[in-house]
User: Fold this.
Amino acid sequence: MLHRLPAELLRNFVLFVGSSSCDLAALRATSQGCCSGITAELIVLIIDTSLARHSLDDLVSIDRTAPLSFDYLFRVAYVLEQGSDEWHVMGVFVRLAAIYRLIPQALSQQGPRIMLSADCISTHVPTRAAFHRLPLTMTIFKMIQGCLIYKGRSLTLVQEEQDGGAAGRGVGDIEFCVVTLVELPRLHSYRSCYKNSDPVVRENDSLYPSFSAFLLHSVMYRWCAEEVVGEKRTLFGTIHPRFLSRYRAIITDPIEKEQHGAFIMVDGQHDGGDVNADPTSVVEFRLVLMTGFRQDDSFASYMTLGQGFVEVYTTEGAARGVTSGSNLDVRLPVTMPKMRSVLGRYGLPAPSALFRTGHT
Assistant:
């Protein structure tokens, strides 16, 4: 029994073998005399371990001001235990949000950018049932939305109620709705990857395999026009017919083909607003994020693929002394090699041979 372990052994057991925050909270409440090892310091270590496991230790922090409330710490630990990769993918969103200045610069320069304060936790985790009322990625978004602003407008997740039911949701000025698993046809491509914790969502005639995919696309397509960001389209072209089969593979291959964190693929499709549309009329599109999602990335670069086109966008700045007349490899020494690496994985050549038409 855990309550019979010496304090130091209990600490090591919890850190290296694992025990849920709920178990520890119950143990501390019922066996305080035998569990002096369950200290605030131990719970903070558990929280820090969870943050590191999700690659969030440089993005998210907690209130460490003494005296620390055990109730607060146990709730934070519980929140970070939930889900599988939902916290990680939302961390990717936060990194991109900082690059695209959706998080005010004053905050992004102060170390961890998101504070899970006591007020935040009490608001969003009043009870376990309340915390799980929304899909996990939406709950995480609500916990961080107070830091997100685009062109002076808060990017707040809202839900409208009508006649006792949800009429729709929105983030900022973008409206969307959740598509349940039962609404998807039996052979729909998004059924196999459906997660209740990160559900399929629709925005007009666009369908996304998850709420997190919708957010990542929104950063790139909707919330990217802050002047200080300096995003630019560096390359655009139409695929030469002889490469179309390989091009289709880069759009439709399973996302599991990502290797060693080299890039992240984010899918979507235009189905005319009808999940039952003839598959031959559905237009698949894919965003390939090449930089902007790692801890040491300071800029974002990505490709958009669909309908026979390739576009490359980046916020990478030209090196000092490099003129606008220099070729792209000189002007963008990180973006261009990464683009060629992604294309090369699918047997596609450099843009000069890949495109039928195009320009840089």
User: Anything to note?
Assistant: The first strand starts at residue 60 and ends at 62. The radius of gyration is 23 Å.
